[in-house]
Design a protein that fits this description.
It contains no helices and four strands. It starts with 6 loop residues before the first strand and ends in an 18-residue tail after the last strand. With 64 residues, the chain is an all-beta fold. Strand 1 (7-13) and strand 2 (20-26) form a beta hairpin.
């Protein structure tokens, strides 16, 4: 599993001059995460639904 990618990017927004946002899915657990970056800073957090529970995708996933 060392050569396999554990995370799949399922959504991208933004670009070079704009802050970037990506949604990643853990291929082992199905949990969705939000990654945001601006300049030299960035942050990662689980993506939650309106009840505060993590969003979990149905597995298996395929990369775009």
């Amino acid at each position: 599993m060392a050569d396999e990618k554990r995370f799949v990017v399922i959504y991208k927004q933004g670009g070079f001059a704009n802050p970037g946002v990506k949604i990643l899915v853990d291929k082992v657990t199905g949990v969705n995460y939000v990654w945001t970056e601006s300049g030299y800073a960035g942050g990662l957090t689980p993506l939650l639904d309106r009840d505060g529970k993590p969003i979990i995708s149905t597995l298996p996933l395929e990369e775009e």
